[in-house]
Amino acid sequence: MLASTWGFLKRHKRKFIFAGAFVGGVYLLGKYAQKKIRDIQEREAAEYIAQARRQFHFESNQRTCNMTVLSMLPTLRDAIIQHLNSESLTALLKNKPPNKLEIWEDLKIISFTRSIVAVYSICMLVVLLHVQLNIIGGYIYLDNSALSKNGMTPFAPPEVQQQYLSSIQHLFGDGLNELMTVVKQAVQKVLGGISLKQSISLLELEQHVNQIREQVEQRGRSGTAESNGNKSTLSSYMMPDEESTLSAQACGLTEKDVGTIKLLNETRDMLESPDFYIVLNTCLNRGFSRLFDNMAEFFRPNRQDPGQSIAADSLSNVSLPLAKVIPIVNGQINSMCSETPSQFVQALLMAEQVKEFSANVYEAFSAPQQLQK
Q1: How far apart are the C-alpha atoms of 353 and 345, rounded to whole Å?
Q2: In which element (H, E) is residue 201 found?
Q3: Which residues is 200 bridged to in the sheet?
């Protein structure tokens, strides 16, 4: 029995060796495959967790953007009213001064100027803050992620964040002053020759404001008309053309200052991009459209049934003397820059173009590739 078994094994030795090698190979291959599958599953799980964490951080960052915009609106309103103070002119008119007509003309220019400036500056504030806070948000995500916990210097330490975000003051200071000057000149050119007694419809009013927009948006900071394609001439009101005073002291910059200038340069690149121009222009169109919607209530035929829709043809038929339109225009800034979220600001914050642009900025600056720069 044993002899016959031994003989069988000897005769088929090569087959058994091949079979054993095959079975062993299959076993090892199976183990290898299991390890690879496990590695892939773990990597996919880690990527999913990282993506979920980044998505959560992004959404939290957008809420911060929106709340920051709302918190800054009263400051913006006060800055505009301080420089374009129509209330003092209104008080003078109550005393029936001999130069009443002259005061009315000044009131006309200031009322239109400050409402138009309010639309521009609110739109700029919304888009600029979404750029700045998403750049910072992307870098903060990298700083907090496991990718950067290997002794690397943080991209955005707190002191750099504070210094960088303080650059928004340009929009509230020199940028706003320059914007008011340009808008006021355009208003004077378009509306200066229109009599206070002349009746004007809402559609005619919209046409005049569009003419003012054309002049403002085609002018650079020098006050001369420019043709520059998709590059927004409005970006100079949000950031100065020249780099900050820190960069003028390049030989003595600290590490903090270098980080701030890097962020400012990246922001300037964003502000000069075609995508930024498209988003800002979309916000401006939506903002001015909302402005006219608010004023349409005062042009309602016979002012009946506030809930009734207003047809476009009826708006062209209803006209008011310009002197009666001035108080309507003058009061718009209070509703646009109110401390509670207004429909005007909500329309800008909820715009899909703003959301998509914010996501793109955040994605660009929170990508792991930033660590290699």
Answers
A1: 14
A2: strand 199-201
A3: 320
SS3 category, 319: strand
Nearest to 218 by CA among 233, 239, 235: 233
Q: Which residues have a Cβ under 8 Å from the Cβ of 8 and sit 6 or more positions away?
A: none
Q: How far is it, in rounded angstroms, from Cα 112 to Cα 118? A: 10
Dump pLDDT digits (tens) for 72-122. 999 999 999 999 999 999 999 888 888 999 999 999 999 999 999 999 999
State the Cα–Cα distance between residues 51 and 173, nearest whole angstrom. 39
361 Cβ contact partners less than 8 Å away, ≥ 6 residues apart: 130, 131, 134, 135, 138, 270
| C-alpha–C-alpha distance, residues 100 and 326, integer Å | 15
Residue 11, pLDDT score: 59
Contact 244, 227 (CB under 8 A): no
Q: Could you count the other beta carbons within 10 Å of the beta carbon of residue 23? A: 10
- As a whole number, the mean pLDDT across the chain is 80
**In which residue are the tokens 């959301």 written?**
355
pTM value surpassing 0.70:
yes
Q: What is the pLDDT of residue 159?
A: 87
Largest pairwise CA distance in the chain = 137
Please state, as a whole number, how many other Cβ atoms lie within 10 Å of the Cβ of residue 103.
Answer: 15
Helix (H, G, I), strand (E, B) or coil at 200: strand
CA-to-CA distance for 255 and 261, rounded, in angstroms? 10
The residues pairing with 225 across neighbouring beta strands, listed in sequence order, are: 219
The helix/strand/coil state of 320 is: strand
DSSP 3-state of 125: helix
List the chain residues with pLDDT less than 50. 44-46, 48-49, 148, 220-231, 244, 248-250, 307
As a three-state string, the secondary structure of 312-339 is: HHHHHHCEEEHHHHHHHHHCHHHHHCCC
